[in-house]
Amino acid sequence: MGTKSRKKKLFKELRTKFETIEEIGYGLQEEGQKLVTYGKFGQEVTAFLGNEIDKYEELASNHPELAADLDSISVWANYTDYQLGGVLGSLAADMSSLGRHTAAAATASTSGSSAVFILHGHASYIQTQNQERNIYDEYQLRKPAFIETAKVQAQLDRYLDNIDPELNQRRKGAWQTLNSMSLDKKPEAAHTMRDVLAKLISRWASNDQVKQADWWVFDSRSKDGVSPRQRFRLLLFGPKAEVASQEELDQVKQSVDDIYKQDAYLKKVAHGSQKGSIELVESVMHAIESTMLLIIEVRRRYFKDESAAC
């Protein structure tokens, strides 16, 4: 089987896996809604009993025939306490497991979004260098408009507003700049978005912070003795943790490296109105947003204390 066929087969298999995740999610929604219904119903029952039981006990003191019913309520209460103890323990374990699985699906799809926009951005740069041709039509390239960037941005909004609202405003400002009438809107917007990414990384993994990590050793090949890989290790897993996932470390580093590799392309099309230049800037900006979301989602998987993650 050729390389192209193997890739297409792999992408088909991955799509099937994501379809299965979606189906499982719908099933969980259905069961979750049942839990909500019974949880609310149980609250109504127990609220009623909590408010009324003293009155019924007083009534039973004068009408002994009611005592058997009160005994039944006590039996029910003890039974329910036993049942819910087991249910809650199991649900807590299941939710912990579900949370890990959901986070894994999130990082998988988010990293894919970043990779797609980087790929499209590179194609857009090729278009800027071939103005006499229409690369998109010639190769029948689809623009990645199918990726729901609004969902990425909405999730990023929630996280960044908690982490650093000012940084989030700069991210939004980058898009406002790109949509403005400014002659320098493309380089300004791209620079702002890259700066937001750089500041987010530096917030959690500056060189000084890396040097405080238990595992840090001086890297003679790197400026200031801190290698990029060490920064990403601290960024994702913290100063004391082991590398929980080499694959995730590699993926995040690759995503960031790919973004910065496109700096040269962006500088070449910073001004003017070459065909493909606006698509290049948009793609890189979307890739940066997906990568920021990926970084935050990975951190949330490995930092039990959410305040440390944010």
Concise summary:
With 310 residues, this protein is mainly α. The chain is built from twelve helices and no strands. It has a domain at 106-309.
Number of strands: 0
N/C terminus separation:
46 Å
* Fraction of residues in H or I helices: over 70%
Mean pLDDT: 90
Q: Give the overall form.
A: elongated
Relative strand content: under 5%
Our count of helices gives 12
Structural class: mainly alpha
Model regions low in confidence, pLDDT < 50 over at least 5 residues: none
What is the N-to-C succession of helices and strands?
HHHHHHHHHHHH
Computed CA radius of gyration, to the nearest angstrom: 27 Å
**Main sheet overview:** none
Word description of this protein:
The protein is mainly alpha-helical and 310 residues long. It has a domain at 106-309. The chain is built from 12 helices and no strands. The protein has helices spanning 3-62, 67-128, 135-138, 149-163, 165-178, 185-205, 207-211, 228-237, 246-261, 263-268, 277-302, 306-309. The chain is elongated. It starts with a helix and ends with a helix. The mean pLDDT is 90.
